[in-house]
Amino acid sequence: MSLQTPFDHLVFDLDDTLLDTYGQLIPPASREACTAMIETGLATTLDQCLAAREEIARTSARSNLYRALVDRFGVRRDANGDSVAEAGHRAFHDRAVERDISLFAGTRDLLRDLRTKYRLSLVTAGAPGTQQEKIDILKINDSFDEILIVNILRGETKGQAFKRIQDTHGGVPERYLSIGNRLETDIAPAKRLGWKTCWVTYGEYAYTSPTDEFELPDFEIADMEELIPTCRL
User: What is the C-alpha separation between 201 and 191, in angstroms, rounded?
Assistant: First the structure.
């Protein structure tokens, strides 16, 4: 890549970075998660579960949402709290994706233009089948030089994926830029590798605050329209 550009490699998150997950997917996924938890033994109603999940996500986004719901409402006498929390977590992440999802406006053209100057990677975390379905529906397989899906159901992390990318492509760490909406998964592990970072302040994690120096982003944007001028791309 040309040294006239500030970076060689741009690494994008998907959910609430390129795709409006908060507006398009979280409402139905939350309903399915609460339904699964109640069926497994959560001692509350669907409406109460949904309201509590929204509150916890807004005020304590870093918490384990599904464990927090179990702690708040308890479970029926015949149920196991860990199993109820796991049912919610799995139902939220491992699900069929609505077919009418779309990228944020202008994102497809942005990726096309950026790819003429930079190597582009997509690193997305969740249940592999669900994340791949999003990618297929959005038709963005050809928008990136590589796509890595981090299987959170098996304990994989984005930090591991970032390290794999750097080990594969080499180069100066400061010429990698991680772009995503979560401080603890998109910003901190990238900065630990010496990368630059851009925090997208959208979605359930928009109101979190950095807890240490690694969670302090180099750039901050509200949406993809601000990416090029803010990060000087």
Answer: 17
- Written as six digits, the tokens of 172 are 């100066």
Q: What is the pLDDT of residue 3?
A: 52
Of the candidates 8, 11, 64, 62, which has an alpha carbon nearest to the alpha carbon of residue 33? 64
CA 59, 50, 183, 203 dihedral sign is: negative
**Phi-psi group of 163: left, alpha or beta (phi > 0 → left; psi -120 to 50 → alpha; rest → beta):** alpha
Cα–Cα dist 90/61, whole Å: 18
Distance of CA 17 to the CA centre of its chain: 8
Check if the beta carbon of residue 66 is closer than 8 Å to that of residue 90.
Answer: no
The single residue listed with the structure tokens 């794999």 is 164
Distance CA 201, CA 76 (A): 38
Instruction: Decide: 74 and 82 in contact? Cβ < 8 Å.
Output: no
How many residues are given for the chain? 233
Q: Which of 48, 15, 35 is nearest to 88 (CA)?
A: 35
Beta strands 176-180 and 146-151, pairing class: unpaired
pLDDT tens, residue by residue, 134-156: 999 999 999 999 999 999 999 99
CB 125 within 8 A of CB 185: yes
Instruction: Tell me the H-state helices in 41-93.
Output: 46-59, 65-73, 81-93
Distance, CA of 69 to CA of 60 (rounded, Å): 12
pTM of the model: 0.91
pLDDT tens-place string over residues 188-222 = 999 999 999 999 999 989 989 999 999 999 999 99
Residue 184, pLDDT > 80, answer yes
